[in-house]
Every structure is written in structure tokens, then in C-alpha cells.
Amino acid sequence: MAEPAKKPANIVINESLCKGCSICVDFCPTNVLAMNGSVVAVKNLEACTKCQLCDLRCPDFAIQVF
């Protein structure tokens, strides 16, 4: 029997809350995130393992992983 297809992650970034601290970028083990000026951006969604370290470490609650 074939394995069920894995649903891709959905990463929501609230740019109005992001202060550009880059903690989420630093803690991401698969380099999904990158800084885009003074806010974080998703650069490689396919690499996301949904570990939620970015979500858990964000001091401003600016990022959510679903």
C-alpha cells in the first residue's frame, strides 16, 4: 500500500508583528526562512518539516506553522 501524500506546510507571517530579530531564521533546521529587509520571509517552503521551532521561538508571535 502506498504512503499517503504529505500535506505541505502553511507558514503565515504577520509582517506587522515581525520586528526582524531573525530568531526564527536562526532556529530553522532546514533553512526555510530568510530575512527580506527587516522582516522574515519564506524562501523554501518545500523544505519545511513542520517542526514549529520558528513559531515557538518567535518572541512577537509573528509566525505560525500549520
Note the quaternary state here: single chain
Beta-strand content bin = 15-25%
Shape: elongated
Number of β-strand runs: 4
Provide structural commentary.
With 66 residues, the protein is an alpha+beta fold. The chain has one domain (11-65): Alpha-Beta Plaits. Helices cover 15% and strands 21% of the residues. Strands 1-4 form a two-stranded antiparallel sheet. Strands 2-3 form a two-stranded antiparallel ribbon. The chain is elongated and about 45 Å long.
Could you give a short description of this structure?
The chain is an alpha+beta fold.
Task: Looking at this protein, list some descriptive labels.
alpha+beta, Alpha-Beta Plaits, 66 residues, 15% helix, two-stranded antiparallel ribbon, 2 helices
List the helices and strands and how they pair.
Elements (H helix, E strand, L loop, with lengths): L10 E3 L9 H5 L5 E4 L2 E4 L10 H5 L5 E3 L1
Antiparallel strand pairs: 1-4, 2-3
